[in-house]
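In pairs, describe these two lines:
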Amino acid sequence: MNIKEQGISADTIFHGEITSEAVRLVYKESASLFSSLIREYLPQGTYEMADLGSHKGGFLKDLTELLPEYKFHTTAVDVNEDDLKVNIADQKIQSDLLPLPIEDKSIDVTLARYVLAWNALEQQKEILKEISRITKRIAIIKHQGANSDNPTELQNASTELFNGVVPLLKRENFFFSTPAQLEEYMRELNIKFKNVQHQNVKGLSDILIEKYKLSEDDVQKVKQILKNSDYVDQTTWVLEF
């Protein structure tokens, strides 16, 4: 994923530093939720933590600052070399998620915030398999996808939206999978999981408009395409190994 794909305002968005309610719900509350889950599942101690799709490490920084009683040796994985240069992680790996260049069962806590949807559906299953391979304690996965009750509405709209009609949003590899699809994969992979958060967040268009600082013409295109599916289904799971 390159800088253009992330968006000109990605850093601000990823911190939730926008007044948009959609941005707050999708991004700003992530660090507090993840930190509370780590406290719930792991006693105080020293752990290996990997952040997949880490970008510049803003989320990793926010999370570790909320957990001062823990000590983490952190690994950031991202395809963007420039982003990794400023990432706070102790170890930085420039790589895609398939395969992950990380040893089997070497990571105590694996974080995957909004990475699955930016891969084809069959790749999402393989990423879950890779997470299972490298993780020895828990993984926390936060997903943005389509509603299980009516998935084709958003899936069709997103295909139209990301096919180049708005050049800044063009993507070649993505799929807004449903929570049900991913949970089916987890069962097939014999992964123990718990759904700890699920909510429908209105305003996908607001997030995209803010991230990419779209022109008025592109704003109208996004609004028109997403008019009946302007949302993401937000789900968080804890996987136990």
Remarks:
- The mean pLDDT is 92.
- Residues 118 and 174 are 4 Å apart (CA to CA).
- The first strand starts at residue 46 and ends at 52.
